[in-house]
Amino acid sequence: MKTLRTLAAATAVAAVALAACSASSSTEQPAAAGVDGSSQPASSDAPEGLVAPGAVTFCIDPEYPPLEYYANGSGGDIVGFDADAGRALAEHWGVEPKFEITSFDGLMPGLQGSRCDMILGGLYMSAERLQVADASAIMNAGPAALAKPELVGELKEKLDLCGRTVATQAASSNAATVKAMAEECKAAGKDAPKVVEYPKTAETVLAVLNGKAEALVETNVAAAYMATQNAGKLEVANGVFDPDTTFGVFSRKDDPLSPAITDAFKALYDDGTLAEIAEKYNLDAAILDVY
Q1: Solute-binding protein family 3/N-terminal domain: which residues (predicted)?
Q2: Fold agreement between 2-141+246-288 and 143-237
Q3: Which fold has domain 2-141+246-288?
């Protein structure tokens, strides 16, 4: 997962500055107590047990566009799919959103230390994490193909990459995925993809833009950001690869808040809110089909 964050932040035209490692700062303050003296607003539909009165608090590392990042590159408002989904959840519950900023390796300790109610951070629902925390599925993840607009229409399935020159980051899981296609291509009577590896993801983008490669393969969320930053020059070829993992919203193990989180995000999925947010950040709404 740490590798994915590095990939997303290293696109051709964007480099997001490192967030402070402290988990003490927040960008939005909780609402004041209700007029009846309660710790949450009178109209709140939030479950009991939130760590801050009148607010839902998210541990977040704004270093992973388009899921969470600073709007101006190094500070100010935190934007992205996760950040906006958190704001939508807060509105759904009738409380204020509060972001507890921490480094990537401080996300789980921040949750366990009750500095936040949940982690919104593009974390895989791995077996190791699920041993120590609960998680609600929010998004499918996996490799995606990008190409120039005139070629994207020809890339509808994985085998459409056979015989093509494909750029990947060196030694990445995406490079391994494309190399592993050799046997499938052979069985289909096609040549294997010619994999061209580069040390940095920015170089894979340039390889396609400069005509040294026909396509590049990157993780779907990072691919969406690459396309956004290279509008008119690169597009995501949706559906070429199937997702192979799931991102989750993590809460404390066996916390009564966990089922409420699942229910709330399911409601935001059902009413189309999450799809609207995905579209805003150039993400394929199909990756939200996790319910």
Answers
A1: 55-285
A2: yes
A3: D-Maltodextrin-Binding Protein; domain 2 (3.40.190)
Q: Which two tokens stand for residue 80?
A: 């992205």
User: Computed from CA positions of residues 210, 214, 218, 224, in that sequence, does the dihedral angle turn out positive or negative?
Assistant: positive
The architecture of the domain spanning 143-237 is: 3-Layer(aba) Sandwich (3.40)
Spans of all domains in the chain: 2-141+246-288, 143-237
Per-residue pLDDT of the chain (291 residues; tens, 9 = 90+): 444 554 444 443 333 332 333 334 454 443 333 333 334 444 578 899 999 999 999 999 999 999 999 999 888 899 999 999 999 999 999 999 999 999 999 999 999 999 999 999 999 999 999 999 999 999 999 999 999 999 999 999 999 999 999 999 999 999 999 999 999 999 999 999 999 999 999 999 999 999 999 999 999 999 999 999 999 999 999 999 999 999 999 999 999 999 999 999 999 999 999 999 999 999 999 999 998
